[in-house]
Amino acid sequence: MRQTDSDIHMRSEVFDVVYNTQGGTSQRRNYRGKMEQDSGEGVVIKQESVEPVELESRIIELCQDTPKGITDALISRHMPMVTAQQRAMAINRLLSTGRIDVLKGTGGLIYRLKDTQGTSVIKGADNQEKLVYQIITDAGNKGIWIRDIRYKCNIMITQLNKILRNLESKKLIKSVKSVAASKKKVYMLFNLEPDQSVTGGAWFSDQDFESEFVEVLNQQCFKFLQQKAAVAKDSKQGPIAQRNASYASSKEVCNFITELGISKVQLSVADIETILNTLIYDGKVEMTVVASQGGSSDDSQTKLFRAVAPLMQPAGLMRIPCGVCPVFARCHDGGAVSPSSCVYMKDWLDF
Fold first, then answer.
1. Would you list the DSSP string of 7-28?
2. How far is 211 from 227, CA to CA, in rounded Å?
3. Angle at CA 65, nearest 5°, toward 60 and 66?
4. Are 155 and 132 in contact (CB under 8 A)?
5. pLDDT given for residue 123 in this prediction
6. Are the beta carbons of 263 and 257 closer than 8 angstroms?
7. Kindly report the CA angle at 197 between 193 and 202, in degrees rounded to 5?
8. Per-residue confidence at 217, pLDDT binned at 50, 70, 90?
């Protein structure tokens, strides 16, 4: 039996459905559905419009699932039935009520859930101060440059400088000079300890490299490994046992340096390993890696170091600056590079 057009095309109908909830109250919902069917096509159902309150709640949930922030494209991908006008209205309501923040990202605007704990610290401040404070908070102990702050908040430089000075006067943030650039300051929260990438760690003091301090540590670490090797050599053991006894872990070397008290700052095992690596490059120390006795997954390997003697002494020419000078071929009397003006030769002769 062949279907007629009236059977294929169905009009829009509004159904009033009344149902009871557990509390005994009744609610009424309106469902409008339009079904159109052609001879070779399926049924297409028009989606129900999303209520504004429900849309705002779904955007908040999406922000909670993505702490770094969401974009309009992400919202559209998760909510394809919502129009651009409905998204804009919902986002504007969330911004006006102070539930989300808007930042400028590489791909456009980013919407992020507002940190109520952080903004409560600067209670009474305007929205621009709260936004700048939130950007600096997100930077952590690595800090953020003023140019990056301005890019994210899009505030004029004069107004931004005024906000930063105000936050610094309240001791909410602080500026730290970076060792990467002498004139570059980064901003971070007042109670944070700057990262080593900013301060340079134990080897820098006021942006100056402590070459003498590093040299003292170099000598003391090598001295400790030499003593360890001498004790192992004096022991009446086999050659393999003596070799194994001459090794010391980086933690043992760190404890030795700490007991000497030659460092005003607290040195970590990683700092001592940096010094031991320089000794390896000089050919004075060798390293081996063994499995840890504890067998923990976090630290399954242990680095061991021991002092080694060179197989043969370097030639006399290699002990003077001329033996390793990269511009030796251009060195002559009266030239731009000459023995009389060589600073390395003067230092070597003074030694």
1. HHB---EEEEEEEE-TTS-EEE
2. 24
3. 95
4. yes
5. 63
6. yes
7. 70
8. very high
